[in-house]
Amino acid sequence: MLFEDEHIAAINKPAGITVSGNKFKTVANALPFNLKKSNEPDALFVPTPVHRLDNQTSGILLIAKTKTAQIELGNQFTNKTIQKNYCTIVIGEVCKNRMINLPIENKPSETNFEIIKVVKSLKYNDLSCLKVTPKTGRTHQIRIHMASIGHPILGDKLYGNAQTIHKGKGLFLCASEIKFLHPKTFLPTIIKIDVPHKFKSLLVREKRRWNTYNV
Known about the structure:
The chain is α+β, with helices and mostly antiparallel strands. The protein has 4 helices and 10 strands.
């Protein structure tokens, strides 16, 4: 649990767990057993996620515990006043910060990214760690946009290829920060997490291997 009050909660969703749907093992099904019931008059019978994260994406997920919070956060997402930042590792050397505005399913879609670090890799030649900020919320948007410029996300089986799979490590995409107005107090709220250990350990290991074999 990252944050919880009478109105909202924020959790750190593990990779490989679906937010909601027909499966038994979902975040939505687990929430009533892991959150305190709100004492507000408009408390939801079941706490409800107010946005999506892909099954393979880990990180911060916002939960509404009241109808007011559900509506207000929904409006903030619709009005694009909520900012979500992701950390990802992509294949290849990304040379400059940029914005991608490739439409997805004929809908306007915009993703901005900044370079955090680029390391040499024996297997991939280069790996780039990026801070990514989507301005819209299309399904698989970051994955589609990064693949569209020739830098698929490491571990992406859907939009990458056989060479982009890092066996047993999953998708290197994490929702690491979210900024929004609290739906009751309207105070600016920022929630951050550290990215999974696998991100840092991978970059350190790839750099060390490169240096070892290229002395």
